[in-house]
Fold this protein.
Amino acid sequence: MNEITVLIVEDEVIVAANLKRRLENFGYRVCGIAPSGEAAIEKADQFRPDMIFMDIMLETDMDGVEAAEHIRRQFDIPVVFVTAFSDEQTLQRAKITEPYGYIIKPFNMKELQTIVEITVYKHDIEKKMRENRQWIMTILNNIHDAIIVVNTEEQITFMNPTVEHISKLTSDEVMGKHFGSLFTFMCEKNKKEIKNVISKVIESGQPQDTVDNHILINRHGDQIQIEYNLAPIIDEAGKVTDVIFVFRDITKRKEAEELLRIKEIAMRNSINAIAITDLMGNITYVNKAFLKLWGYEKEQNIFGGPSANFWQLEDNALEVIEKLTGEESWIGMIRATHRDRKSMELELSATMVIDDLGNPVCMMTSFVDPNNRLIT
């Protein structure tokens, strides 16, 4: 462990010298002696000691209590007050500065060493805890998920900025308020209110699996489609102390899913026979018109097979695929083979599907029988 440095703030020369000698006998380094509150602040800034022994009743313009408050706020250095006696009012003022302890004159040798070791150790642990807390808070405040923490009374004790953005409620509006007075859950399908979402986790002590079919209604009446999960915070005794509610706004995702669903329905019910293949030409999707045109009943009988199986001439299929690779689309007449081995003359529109990055992802083909008849 590094050498512990101590600053002494004492206006009585003999007392200061005695304290300095005793501390040095224990192996501590006394970096200075300050006779006043003003000098204490100056030396604390200059030496940044590990701790300070501060006479609570300095006979100067700035007493030990005021000096300790300045040092705590500016330098975060732990202070132990030294006193022979003090009135109640001074002690109450001293408490506000959050001292690490008191030591009574005359000094007890064993007590002096113990209080130095405990003070430095306690301050080091608290500093690490503050740093960890700050690290965690930085993550929570910058994460895209919305996070709310409630206690066992369902009072909100923490919310991150994402919650403010989604709910349009400020931290001042919600802190300490009952969760249920600000937020209501509703089932997306039947629009019925869902109750006791938080209390169930408090009572069971078990996490709530991810839910994505609920709507969160805030105090302003805004309806937000969310995906969420709940998890209890449990202490060493196995008791639930808090519940973490993590959610995200999935309104846009739901809208995109609905749009995809509508597009899939439209494609499935198109009068054109539509098929989608991977880049190797293997079929991954067909619609009802495709099944009807080729005489099949189930998609499973087709999926995974090469699209060239449905062409009368495999070379024609390979030629179209080659042209798609270079030109992204192709339109023309082809001859195809029906399931009963009869030939069909079809009009084909084929397109290479390109993603937002310009990469080909699949091929889409649309077939039309211009004569609406089989060719024998």
The two ends are 96 Å apart (CA to CA). The chain has a mean pLDDT of 86. The first strand starts at residue 5 and ends at 9.
